[in-house]
Amino acid sequence: MSELVTFGETMLRLTPPRGHRLSRVDRLDVHVGGAESNVAVGAANLGVDAAWLSVLPDSELGERIAYALRGEGVEPLVTWTDDGRVGTYYFERGGMPRGRDVVYDREGAPIRAARPEQVAVDRVRDADVFFTTGITPALSDRLVETTGSLLRTASDAGARTAFDVNYREKLWTPAEARETLADLFPAVDVLFAAERDARTVLGFDGDAEAMASGLAAEFDFETVVITRGEKGALARHGGTTTEQGTFPADTVDPLGSGDAFASGFLAERLDGASIDEALAYGAATAALKRTIEGDMARVSADEVRAIVEDGGGVDIER
Length: 318
What we know:
single chain, alpha/beta, UDP-N-acetylmuramoyl-L-alanine:D-glutamate ligase, 23% strand, globular
C-alpha cells in the first residue's frame, strides 16, 4: 500500500528558453508535469510512500512520463492503452510587462475516457490519503464520474481525501466548476483553494478567514486551506484558524508552487504533525520549488526543515 495515492493527467511541458517567443523558437526544453503527479513527487521527496494513478498511451512519450516519476520515487500506477496520445502544454516565460502564457494541446489523452474499473482502485482503498484536483473532472464528463467514484471509494475505505480546486479558466467556466465541485465535496475531507478560486469559482465572499469558515461549515470539511499568494496561507481546522506567511525565494520557475505547497502540507499531516506545522512545511516546500526549473518539487526533507527552523514566515493561531 502507499501512504499517498494521487489521480490525474500528467503531460509533457515544452518551454522556450528564457526570453524567447514561442512563435519564434527553434528549440524547447522538456519537463514532465501534472498537478496530481507533482504532489506525489513533492511528497515522495519528503519521505512519503507515494503513488500516482493514471492512464497513458503505450508509447515512448508515455514511458517518458512514467520514467520521470519513477526517478523521483513515485510509483506510477499506470493503465497502458493503445489509444490516444500524451497531452502537452507550452509555457512561455516573459517578464513585465509581457507576462507569461500557457498553451494547452491535450485533446485525445486517454485519461479523458478513464473509468474506475480501468484503474488500480484497490490501491485507492488501501491509501492513507487520496488526492486529486479540479483539473481532472474539468477534462471530461467521464472524469467527473470517475473522480467522484474514486473519492467515494477512498472515503468509504477510511482514507482521508484531499482535493485542490486548482481552477483552470481554459478548461471550464466558474459556473460549470462550481456545480461539479459541489457534487464532489461531500466525499472530501481536506480542501485546498486559492483565495481567488474560493471567491470567483465557489462564490464565497469576505476575507480568507471568512471564506475558510464558510466553506468548512457548508460542506463539512475537516480542514480548509486557503492559499493567498504573497500573503501566505490560512487553514481552518477544528474551529481554529491558523495563518502562515511565505518564505523568501528567488523565482526561477513558478509553475508547480501550489502543488509543492500541498505536498509539504500533506506529508507533514501524514507524519502526524499539527496544522500549523503542516502549513509551515507547505510554505517552505513551495518556496524551494520556486528556485527549481520544471514543475516538480525536487527538494529534500532536510532542506524544508532548515527553512522552517530558520524562520521567516508568520505563524498566527487564533
